[in-house]
Amino acid sequence: MGHDHGAPPAASGTLSGTYRKRLLWTIGISVSITLIQVVGALLSGSLALLADAAHSLTDAIGVSLALGAITLAQRAPTPRRTFGFYRVEIFSAVLNALLLVAIFVWVMWSAIGRFREPVEVKGGLMFAVAVGGLAANLVGLWLLKDAKDKSLNLRGAYLEVLGDAFGSVAVIVGGLVILLTGWQAADPIASIVIGLLIVPRAYGLLRDALHVLMEATPQDMDLAQVRQHLLDEPGVVDVHDLHGWTVTSGMPVLTAHVVVSAAALDGGYGELLARLQSCVGDHFDVAHSTIQLEPEGHREAAESLHM
User: pLDDT per residue over 217-228, tens digit each?
Assistant: First the structure.
């Protein structure tokens, strides 16, 4: 009496796949920023520019991981991997978060070293390179602005570029301070600011990715409401073993055992299942649901067999 409502959506239909070209453009921008900032850091002696360059490099690596995950997610499901490679996108988000943590540790350690052994920094060059980096980051943000709320993978890419934009602002401020006052400590302080900007992004991305990997109920799905909607359908007596989780961003899944009256089954299983799945799909945007129909008394009989 089980029923599987359709196959998983085609891999080509993943939300992240829609933005493949924008991700490629973002990678190109991040790599360009990295090269310019590395040269600028070497010429100016700025740790903040070098930290921002490292951050931009993680942007490029992180977005490349996202793109690679999207490419894998395009592969069709197989009998051994019935949901295909969708979950790879979530693993990619975890790697992005770990990369950000590694950069944070390096930046903080290097900034502390600069306080111990100050280095002469050319504030004017530092400022000019940071302004160019900010302009490039704003272009990257524009490319991904429509995608950030639709996919965890793309959200990670967007947040990386956003954090790098704030990092460029920190470098700009540090460069101006050095240029106008000659206070060299502004450079390692700007580096620390860049490091601190990484922390909330890494935490949020890792938290959301682990939420999916732990197969927790989607944050926008209230199982109590789902249960009540099913119970409100004519003929439904009880709902148990109700579970909801997420395969990847934008792909919630739901399973339930629904106890129905004998009268409700008189009209046929097909019509009743279609009505119940329509209830779930229309109200909670769940395209893939598995509902097992059980006649009254079935659960008690099954439990008695295993006593």
Answer: 888 889 999 999
